[in-house]
Structures are given as C-alpha cells and as structure tokens.
Amino acid sequence: MKSLSLSLLIAVVAAGPITAQDSASTESGAVTAIFVTGPERGQMAVDFSLPWADKNGIGPADDPFTLGDWKGQVVVLAFYPQDFTSGCTAEMRTFTDQYDLMFTGTVLVGISIDSLETHVRFAQSLGLPFKLLSDPKQRIAAKYGAKGSQGQMRRVVYVIGRDGKVAWRELQFKATDPKGYDRLYKAIADARGKS
C-alpha cells in the first residue's frame, strides 16, 4: 500500500508544474503534502486590485492598488504572513533599510491578511516607504501560490517585469536569510536592465 501511495505521489508531481509548499499534520499524526502553484517565470502576472495603506494612512477607497496600472515598471510583490510578527518585521525592516539600494525605480508592495488599520500602525512603526495591501480572504494570495494553510499567507516574493510577466519568484522566501535578499536584488536588477 505504501509503494502505491508513493507511486501516486510521484505521478502527481511528475504530471505538471506543481510546487510543494509545506506540509501539515493531520489528527492521526500523518504528514500530508500541500501543493501550490502560481504564475511561473515568463508567464503573465495575474492582474488584481486591492486596498492599501501606508505610514501616512489608508489609501482612498476609489483608488486601490491595481497591478495592471504599473505595466512598464518593475513591480515586487512581497506576500507575508502577518504584521508585527518577528519574521515579517525583520523582512519589512530589511526592505526599508535596503530600499534606496534595492528598490530605486521599482514599485514594491507588501501583501498580507491584515486590516488597513493594522497596516497603518505597522508601516508607521517601521517607517515603511512603500504600500501594504490587504487581502484578508487570501483571494489574490491563492492566485500567486501564497495562500497559507493556517489562515495566514506564506512568505512568497515575485518580481514582475515591465512587460507584465513574471521575471522571478521565490515560493519560500526566508526573511532572515541574506542570500534570499541577494537573489531578489539580482532579479530586480536583471528585470530593470531589460527594456
């Protein structure tokens, strides 16, 4: 029976561009794989509109952040679990500290399940120089492979090129790994270098 289950898992993984994201334990203690997908490198990014906030307050309701409005610019989408948690604070602080070096000429947005009011407080506490988008039902996160299994988003980062296509993605971005930021910086530089 175990070999049949393993064969089935191998067949499912080999069948298409599915990426394992994490695992969850069931009540019986068995570990089950959870699979995610999202637009891959070279594919068009899924357009969306979400309400936003920044350190100055909540953005106008009639002016949400719409990805398609930024075509022609490099855009970084940083999905993260939750405001005020240690990993997310470390990630957003690093983005802020490296903002002038990494994100000049780039549109950076953070996306989580948090309310706009919470986003304002979080952005003010860190002095974030970019917008935070609110996706409480994880509708957009699901389209980008960032929907979490525990009610919070997974830490996923996309670089969208000027042509609206995915230039780079990391489905398990590590908030405290300097090499992850190095890879992101290179991906942004490569995307900006293309016309």
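The above is record 1. Record 2 follows with the same two-line structure.
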Amino acid sequence: MSYIKTLQDGIASFTKHNCYDGSVYNQTVSKGQTPKIMVVSCSDSMVDPAVLTNAGPGELFIHRNIAGLVPPYQPEERDKYHGTSAVIEYGVTGLKVDHLIVFGHGNCGGIKSMIQGHIHVGRDSFVAAWMRIAKPALGVIRGDNQDLSLEKKQHLCEKESIILSLNNLMTFPWIQERVQNGTLKLHGWHFDRGSFSIYNQKTKQFE
C-alpha cells in the first residue's frame, strides 16, 4: 500500500467517525474558526504542534515554516511575498488570538544548516536566504561556546532563535500595542524529545 493511499484511507476513516450530522467536528466547523491561540512552529514532519499539545480542531491557528522563524516587521516590502507576516497579521488582527507561541524544537534542520554554513543546500538557496533571519542567533555560540559539540551549539541556537523571533514580533506595531495593553501574550517554547522548556521573559531564561 502506498503512502498516498494510506493518507486517503485516513481521510476516509476520519470522515466516517467525525463528519456526520451532529458530530462535534461538524458543529465546530460550521461555526467557523475562533481559536484563542496561534502557534508559529517549524515545518519539521516530526514536530506537529497539534499532536504535541493534544489540541482538537479549531483550538490552534498554526503557521509552520523552516525553523519556525518570525521575520522583523518590513512595511516597505508589502509588495513582496511575506507569507509568515501575513499569517501573523491575520491571526492577531483578524482572529484576535489571545496568545501567540513561538514553538521551537530540538534537532532542527534549519538551525543545523545555518550553523554549518548551508553546506547541504547552497548559499543561494531559498533555505539559506530564509535562515538569514536567524543569523544573529549565531552570536550565542561564539566566545566560550565556540568549542562545544555541534549538538550543543544547535541546542543553544534553537533557543536563541526563539528569543529572536519573540523580539521580532514586537517590531510589529499592532502586536506591540496589544502586548502593552494586555490583550495579547507572547510565549517561547522549546521541545526536544520529551524535554519541554518555556522562556521566562522576566529572567531571560528557558525553564
């Protein structure tokens, strides 16, 4: 059986068990989405925010990209393609979510590619260009940390990129306004094969 056929069978099974008159799923969908939480996370196939959080349909508004990065606010480039900024704008100003989570993870391929100088994809690739957003995170592996193993460097950069994305979120005026008036809260999460940590914005540490 092909992988595609397996997925098709999965849809058929989901439909049979969830898409009937009066089902919770149908009732939820018919009302339209009203999630209270938005998640920006990595596209990694092994790290699905809905699966990890055991969330149901309609509970999370999710955007996924390489390394789960948030670019800085760039109003002068609206005529270009800014998928991540567009999704964040819709989640915050359209859906009016109460929480926005930047969800990073261990063994992130995008972060590893950046640390290694994009030797697997080439410096002129879309991935390399996208990962320039996280380039400031490389500062955390200089000095006393430059002799660490690749795995430990990667772990530090993963968490530093979450902090960077949180800072970039605050460059969006409509996010800054909502955070300051208390209608939106930002969160930084990191998950690594069972180890879960949350960024404490007061102590500036993952705990």
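The chain has a mean pLDDT of 94.
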